[in-house]
Write a structure and sequence with these properties.
Chain lengths: 418, 157
């Protein structure tokens, strides 16, 4: 991915920052220092986030929006401040455009049920790219069966990118939704969401962008991107699991219906019927994961303080370094586009050794990578493979770790070729 | 200090060697009875949704005897080697015997083995998988697929 040449507000000392992550600096795996290269699966948590969650249960635990007492009032304020932080983090226009969800999967399901189910009908079309995570495919299969809307595949190129001409060919007056990942969890491809939105909007279609893999690694500017729906995952931006957020463009509000029914989302309930609050409250039934909201709030402060521009720059420097290390190993094939079009995620296969076997040998060196289909079976089919090994970096990784990974990868190859 | 490090390194090498025994790697490199049977009496495809490994098993079954069996596995060394050994084990056996072997392999993965190494033959090499919980499903894929095939076949009669 290209990074801007402008100097940052301040330089970040990533060697020092690494010490903020207790699991990263303290963990031994079978006597060896852990090297955590599975950051696309989940990121580790800085001490401030862990402390925020502990502090919540020690001093702040209550229920938001459900009491006139001091604790409840303070917590309600804190949750709304977090909503405000997410709005700023994504550069949304209005705070009410931000809905808390339990994660990205729930956010996409919410769009599927609260928008798709009510607004799609037979003859309508949903365009899904071939590089989507199952969480951005399967909800649409369900909605397709419920509404009769048809799913159309946006094929990808051999280098793992989307050709806008292919999208143009698919788009027509029946297209109601284009749903595309911002950054591929397998290839690291950064999709051109701005152009995709422009093309889709010209045809009157809406765009959902899955930001699970982008929002922790690059600056998100929704005014620049133009998406109608955008999702983020808390645990992939150094926050806790069980929390995420969905951005819904305000212009979409009148097309949105309730998701879960329950407490907080209602205006009035009788035994016979009920009516509902507006977005976002309408979509937040039941007690939300409050400790997780507090943890996410702290995580967003943390990454904002390092500055996203610094993070992107450093991760891309590490990425270029890792790319050279991986491609030097004989028999390795790396999938995905050139470095200027991707983030620091590298999926690869070896011409003779299965990814699981590579991962097991690396695990014995204390190195955590992911091997498998990464919940992207259509993408695996596209490349005619069952699985890849995947290395995904974070700013707390170091070049020394990547060197050790390179040595271990060589060792894995020689182990199976003996 | 150096001695300790070396012995630790050796221990680790040994543990990996326990998983990836020579015999497993041999089966992986050239699986026995690979492919599919034309006009099989029973055929089944299955996968491990966790990792994407796939297998197709085809078999000829006459009067309760598996006269021929072939596997077409796509997966890691453990899953392919296990499938290869499966064909050696159940080819020529009765359906009842084959089911006994399926149980033996399942027990083996839970370190609850009642059979001697001699009886196991090459299958003995899969014992080490029990120490790698995430890999147990790899070793079991072909055996659980065979069970499905045998159950389906019974249903078809």
């Amino acid at each position: 991915m290209k990074t801007s040449k402008l100097p940052s507000i301040k330089k970040a000392d990533f060697k020092k920052i690494r010490n903020d992550f207790p699991l990263i600096v303290n963990t031994l795996v079978r006597g060896k220092k852990l090297i955590y290269l599975n950051n696309a699966a989940t990121t580790q948590k800085p001490q401030v986030v862990i402390d925020a969650i502990n502090n919540y249960y020690e001093k702040e635990n209550s229920n938001a929006n459900r009491g006139a007492d001091y604790l409840s009032e303070q917590l309600t304020i804190k949750c709304e401040q977090t909503r405000q932080k997410i709005k700023l983090y994504l550069n949304a226009r209005f705070t009410e455009e931000i809905v808390f969800t339990r994660g990205t999967t729930e956010a996409i399901n919410l769009v599927a049920y609260s928008w798709g189910f009510y607004n799609l009908k037979k003859g309508d079309e949903i365009i899904i790219s071939e590089m989507e995570h199952h969480s951005n495919i399967v909800p649409w299969h369900i909605i397709s069966r419920l509404t009769g809307a048809k799913i159309r595949k946006l094929a990808i190129e051999n280098d793992g990118t989307i050709k806008l001409d292919n999208l143009k060919k698919l788009l027509n007056k029946n297209t109601k939704l284009v749903t595309i990942v911002h950054v591929s969890n397998v290839l690291g491809t950064v999709n051109n969401i701005r152009e995709i939105c422009d093309l889709a909007h010209e045809q009157g279609a809406y765009v959902l962008t899955d930001g699970a893999q982008s929002s922790g690694h690059m600056k998100i500017d929704l005014q620049e991107l133009g998406s109608d729906f955008f999702t983020i995952s808390g645990h992939k931006v150094y926050g806790p699991t069980g929390i995420g957020a969905l951005y819904i463009k305000k212009e979409m509000f009148d097309q949105i219906h309730p998701f879960h029914g329950g407490g907080h989302m209602i205006k009035k309930v009788t035994i016979e019927d009920s009516n509902y609050k507006d977005v976002p409250d309408m979509l937040e039934a039941g007690t939300m994961p409050l400790a997780e909201i507090v943890g996410l709030s702290s995580a967003l402060d943390y990454v904002t303080d390092i500055d996203m521009e610094n993070i992107t720059k450093w991760e891309m420097e590490l990425g270029a370094y890792a790319y050279d290390v991986i491609r030097k190993v004989r028999g390795i094939k790396i999938y995905g586009p050139s470095l200027d079009k991707k983030t620091a995620i590298f999926s690869f296969t070896h011409d003779e050794i299965h990814p699981h076997d590579i991962a097991t040998v690396l695990d014995y060196e204390g190195i955590a990578i992911r091997a498998g289909h990464h919940c992207t079976q259509p993408l695996m089919n596209r490349f005619g493979i069952q699985a890849t090994a995947r290395v995904s970096l974070s700013f707390y990784n170091t070049k020394e770790e990547i060197d050790r990974f390179g040595v271990a990868l060589e060792k894995a190859v020689s182990f199976f070729k003996k | 200090m150096i001695v300790t490090n070396m012995s630790r390194a050796n221990d680790e090498a040994n543990q990996l060697d326990q998983l990836y025994k020579e015999i497993i790697l041999e089966h992986y490199k050239s699986p026995h009875n690979k492919g599919t049977i034309n006009n099989p009496d029973a055929s089944v495809w299955d996968n491990n949704p966790l990792c994407g490994d796939e297998i197709t098993i085809t078999a000829k079954i006459n009067k309760g005897v598996i006269s021929d069996v072939r596997v077409d596995p796509k997966g890691c060394s453990i899953s392919v080697a296990s499938a290869s050994m499966l064909t050696d084990t159940v080819k020529g056996q009765t359906v009842v015997e084959a089911k006994k072997w399926i149980k033996i392999i399942k027990d083996m993965m839970h370190s609850d083995l009642q059979v001697s190494d001699d009886e196991l033959g090459d299958l003995e090499s899969l014992k080490g998988v029990a120490n790698f919980p995430v890999r147990i499903k790899c070793a079991l894929l072909s055996w659980m697929t065979l069970l499905k095939l045998l159950e389906n076949h019974k249903g078809g009669q």
